[in-house]
Amino acid sequence: MHEHGLVDRMMQSALAEAEQRGAALRAVHVRLGALASLGEARLRADFAHVLEHLGRSDIALHVEYAPERPSGLEIVGIDVVA
Ligand SMILES: [Zn+2]
User: Fold this and answer.
1) Domains located in the chain, CATH noted
2) Where are the beta strands (DSSP E) in the chain?
3) For residues 64 and 53, what is the distance between their CA atoms, to the nearest angstrom?
4) 49 Cα to the center of ligand 1, angstroms
């Protein structure tokens, strides 16, 4: 049993946004605030695993830290290619 629902939801949001723009998702930029329930290592591991589920290997993950913000894991932007 493994759990990666948070990253699943993050990727569904990013993919939906790319689709809305009629473009292919190439990268996801996220910010980890003070309330993030996972650190970068776990985030990257889950991300790689979710990409496997999706059958995608062409999406990058960019992580920035914002320990001064009372927030969790947030998408701050996506890169797409038409
Ligand atoms: Zn899984």
Assistant:
1) 5-81 (3.30.2320.50)
2) 24-33, 60-66, 73-81
3) 24
4) 6
Looking at residue 42, its amino acid is: R
Distance (angstroms) between ligand 1 centre and the Cα of 76 equals 24
What confidence score (pLDDT) does residue 3 get?
A: 83
pLDDT digits (tens, 9 = 90+) for 2-40: 788 999 999 999 999 999 999 999 999 999 999 999 999
pLDDT of 1 over the 70 cut: no
Ramachandran class of 79: left when φ > 0, alpha when ψ lies in -120 to 50, beta otherwise: beta
